[in-house]
Design goal:
The complex is a heterodimer of chains A (about 110) and B (about 110).
Chain A: E1 5-7, E2 10-13, E3 19-24, E4 31-37, E5 44-50, E6 53-56, E7 65-68, E8 75-79, E9 88-95, E10 104-105, E11 109-113
Parallel strand pairs in A: 2-11
Antiparallel strand pairs in A: 1-3, 3-8, 4-5, 4-9, 5-6, 7-8, 9-10, 9-11
Chain B: E1 3-6, E2 10-14, E3 19-21, E4 23-26, E5 31-38, E6 45-50, E7 56-58, E8 64-68, E9 73-78, E10 87-95, E11 103-104, E12 108-113
Parallel strand pairs in B: 2-12
Antiparallel strand pairs in B: 1-4, 3-9, 5-6, 5-10, 7-8, 8-9, 10-11, 10-12
The chains are: A mainly beta (about 110), B mainly beta (about 110).
Chain lengths: ~110, ~110
């Protein structure tokens, strides 16, 4: 069974530039999560989707971050414009059903903003 | 509100000796608790979970953890460390009857000495 796929794995951009991350969850998983993991910290939830609906986006900085999950499968997370403080690893996870008890994580995208 | 405190940011043990990674939690409700492991350049992987069943939980790769409500602890142990156990370990809490959001600790880096 294929796991959660994320691309790109690494991205280096200059501040004020836009950037987008893509996630393909495990087939059949209707719940999708985006996390941000700062250096030396645990992941923090940015947004949670159930199918195509964003059910928890309270931690998403909406002035510069946006996300979408068209058709309830793949998802894209965008930052525009990027700031130096956005440098982090962005993780995507998915789970079956509404339960958050067994989330499967992708390898992440390491973003460096210079 | 829920939180976890991982008491050690870095633990070093010799190969073949026991491993102890400490975690204390705080939760307003009946908590669910997890341990995840993160190997370099790999996605987070669930080691084990406690969801109000048996207090001694066995996970993958010989790891286990014991839920102690009186001590609000959920320490991770393994009788004999292997070189492949070297990784970052995260203790995670979720409110069973709350919003099911996962809250990660700051992580413990486990180093295995040959």
């Amino acid at each position: 069974e294929a796991g959660v796929v994320q691309s790109p794995r690494y991205k280096i951009i200059e501040k004020k530039q836009p950037v987008a991350f893509w996630c393909n969850p495990i087939s059949g998983h209707n719940t999708l999560y985006w996390y941000r993991q700062n250096l030396g910290q645990g992941p923090e939830l940015l947004i949670r989707y159930e199918n195509e609906e964003a059910v928890d986006d309270s931690q998403l900085p909406k002035d510069r971050f946006s996300a979408e999950r068209l058709k309830g499968v793949d998802s894209t997370l965008k930052i525009q414009p990027a700031e130096l403080g956005d440098s982090a690893v962005y993780l995507c996870a998915s789970s079956f059903g509404r339960s958050s008890y067994e989330q499967y994580f992708g390898p992440g995208t390491r973003l460096t903003v210079t | 509100a829920q939180s976890v405190t991982q008491l050690d940011s870095h633990v070093s043990v010799s190969e073949g000796t026991p491993v102890l990674l400490r975690c204390n939690y705080s939760s307003s409700y009946s908590p669910s608790l997890f341990w995840y492991v993160q190997h370099p350049n790999k996605g987070l992987q669930l080691l084990l979970k406690y969801t109000s069943a048996a207090t001694l939980v066995k996970g993958i790769n010989g790891f286990e953890a014991e839920f102690k409500k009186s001590e609000t602890s959920f320490h991770l142990t393994k009788p004999s460390a292997h070189m492949s156990d070297a990784a970052e370990y995260f203790c995670v809490v979720s409110d069973f009857f709350g919003n099911e959001k996962l809250t990660f600790g700051t992580g413990t880096r486990l180093t295995i000495i040959p």
